[in-house]
Structure formats: C-alpha cells, structure tokens
Amino acid sequence: MDQILKAQDLSLFEEDYEKRDGLKKLQNNILRHGINESCIDESLYHEMKDVFSVEVKTGKVTNQRQSGRCWMFAGLNVLREILKETLNVKEIELSQAYLQFYDKLEKANFFLEKGLEHADEELDSRDNVFLLDSALGDGGHFHMFTNLVKKYGVVPFDVMPDEAVSKNTSELNQVLTRYLMQGYLELREAKREGAKQEVLETMKQGYLNDVYRILKMSLGNPVSSFTYEYEDKDGKFVRLENLTPKQFYERYLKEELDDYICLADAPLNGMKQYQKYTCDLVNNVIGGDPVIFFNVPLSVMKDALIKSLEDKRPCWFAADVSTQSLRKEGILADGILQRKELFSLNYTLNKSQRANLRASFCNHAMTFTGVNLVDGVPNRYKVQNSWGEENGFKGYYIMSDDWFDEYVYEVFVNKKYLDPEVVEKYEKSTIEKQSPYNTLWIEMK
User: Fold this and answer.
1) What's the DSSP call for residue 284?
2) Catalytic residue among 109, 283, 385, 414
3) Are the CB atoms for 291 and 144 separated by under 8 Å?
4) I need a labelling partner for 236 at 20 to 30 A (CA). Which of 182, 224, 344, 423 fits?
C-alpha cells in the first residue's frame, strides 16, 4: 500500500460514495440534526421505562455545574441516604465545597511529595510526565472520597454551599496548577542539589500555605464547627449544636466506610480476576488508604449491587458515560445510537479491546438507586446523576443491562453484600502495584 494519499485515491472514494443509494438523504439529515440525532433507535428508546421493581427512594438530584467533582457528588449521595435514616430527616444535601477545599489542599501536598520522590528521575520520565499532566485537576476515585470523609468529616450543604468558583473550577485549577508547577520544579532542584530534609519541608510548607490562602479566598471558609437545625419526618424540631465536621460524620454516619470494596470489571491485558490492584501515583491524601480495585467477573458485581439495592443502599459506580448515551433524555443503552448502521461500518471492537486501546474508560461517576428484575434477572437500572434536573428524568437516568455489561467498570459496595467466598478471596489477595498508564487509573470527572 502506498504511504501517500493521492488524488486517484480521492477519486475512488468519491466514486464509492456516489454509487451508494440513500446517502444524500442521510447527509442532509446529519448536516441539519447532527450525527447522534440522526441515528437514535426509537424502538429501544421507548423500551427504557422509568419504573423499577427494586428502588431506593432518593431525593432531588444535585448539580456539579462546570466542575469535575462527579466522584465526590456520587459519594455524598450515598452518604446522605444513610443520614436520612440516622437523623430521621426528609431530605438533606451534604456540602461538596467543603470536601473540595480539602481535596485541593491534599492533592497539592500529594503532588509536591511525589515530585520529591521522583526528583532523581529526568523531568520527562514517564512518572514525572504523568504527575505533571494530572496535577491539580478535579477528578478522583471513590477511595479518594473516603479518605477525605474519614479525615475531615462532612457538613450539611447550607453550612458551606457552592459559590462561583466551586461551581466552575477552570480558573482555580489554572492558578493552582501553574503555581505548583513552580513548587514542583524548585523542590526537585533543591533535592538534586543536596538540600536537607528540613529545608525541603520548609519549602513545601510555604507552597501549601499559599495554596490554603488561595482556596480560602476562592471557595470560602472551611467549616470548623456548626449547628444543624431541621424538622424531622415526625414534625419535630431538632437542633444539633456545636458539632465539628468529624463529629458529625462519626456520630451520624454509622456505615463503616472501611467495609466498602471497589469491585472492578477490568478486561485489560495482564489483569487477573480476584486480584487487588493499586497505583502509588493515583491518590489525594498522603497517609490515606490506597486506591484499590478488586477485579471480579461482572456477575459478582451485579449480584452485590442488587443485594445492596434490595437493602435500600444506593451504590457509587464509574462508567464510560460518553458512549451510547443520550444526555438530555437520560438514556444509557447499548445500541441506542445506531452509528455503525448510519455510516455502514463494520465496527467490531469489544469491551476489552476498547479499554486496552484507550478508546473507552471511566470518565464519570454516578449512583445506582434502582433495578428492574424479571425472574430475578436485571434488565435495566435507575441512576442518580449530578447534572441537575434539566437532564434525564428530573436528573435520573435509565440504564439497560447491556449498557452495564459494556460500559460500567467499577461498583463500590459494602462487603456484606458479597458472597462469603468472594470476601475470602478479597481478604487473601495480595495487592499488585501497577503503573498509571492503563485506563483503570484515569480519574472520574
């Protein structure tokens, strides 16, 4: 095959196009309505009913606005359902801005510490490039969420609500990233020149002090104590006085986060089932729990999810939401977009191939709140998103079971919903360390 694209090739392409029937009509439709709107499977669309045999009755959806905090929103959506029981409150929302403040501060510390760890490597080494590229973004994983909650607690939304910068983080991220790149460079150069540990710690502390100031000016005052007043489900007025965020978490969130396991369907080259995986370069809290995935068959993941939902416990999950989805309509269904039929393509990549080729990966976290079972077998799921009420069914989405198989990669569940033999395999599994270059370690936004 000739390496150069020639005029003769273009003529052959044009000849092939002209001899295909119906393309003019399809072209007009695509030009006017776009690709996705021109290939929706209406039959499948109408099959996606907003009714479920098992459902956790949750409240209004939240809205992450122009920020990449989906993993945090989804985690807080799980915790607020526990609080609704322990506080006997009709509705509650937890502050995302409060955790966002400490996530940024912890990520700054993590970034500078990892820069020091890799100071002996060239600046363009793969690990340094990964750290510099990931830096101070909004994204994260569920263990990063639990690290924040266990260390800093949580507060109600009205105690520290979202403001302009927390809703739209691009300017803050630019300020923090540019400034900390300088810190990264100064610290690595000082270490390479033989600076003592106490000198490096003083330099790092100076940068973190500046980051704290930036965050306080941009996101608001991090809450140290608060009073929470509400009317409970029985119409009784309740006042919880002078609580620290950590006390609020420890007293009223009785669910033990240490018992949660991240089940992963990771069909990546070299990854074994019933094996734990971690990566030293992916986290936020130095000294916190590592980000761990336990690779299992899809059937194990689904069984645990269904048991959790039957017990009225929603589940955090992560998926490739950019594929085979209708954002405005709130539909996640494999085949809902007939793109290969529209363009007459012989597209055959499976989930494993897409993941290994970096064509599919977790890019969004949401919360499972329901499932529809037919003779014990799931055919669709209810999903609580964090894109506001204007999308989907007042913010909720419907997912087909086929879509789950193809695009869901992680589900976080309490291990009490797993079969004992699976828990035993989890406990006995060693933790295998990986480099951050496969798609499993991409942070959700």
Assistant:
1) S
2) 385
3) yes
4) 224
* Closest among 409, 391, 392, 402 to 317, alpha carbons compared: 409
> Which residues lie across from 317 on neighbouring strands?
366, 411
Tell me the residue length of the chain: 445
Alpha carbon distance 272, 280 (integer Å): 19
Q: How far apart are CA 1 and CA 32, in angstroms?
A: 37
| Digit-coded pLDDT (tens) for 339-368 | 999 999 999 999 999 999 999 999 999 999
| Among candidate residues 43, 262, 7, 285, the one with its CA nearest the CA of residue 144 | 285
- 323-339: per-residue pLDDT in tens? 999 999 999 999 999 99
The active-site residue, picked from 39, 63, 70, 391, is 70
DSSP three-state, residue 16: helix
Q: Is 33 marked active-site?
A: no
Reply yes or no on whether 364 is catalytic: yes
Structure tokens, 349:
């990549």
269 has catalytic annotation: no
Structure tokens at 74: 């989804």
DSSP state of 272: P
Among 118, 141, 143, 364, which one carries the catalytic annotation?
364
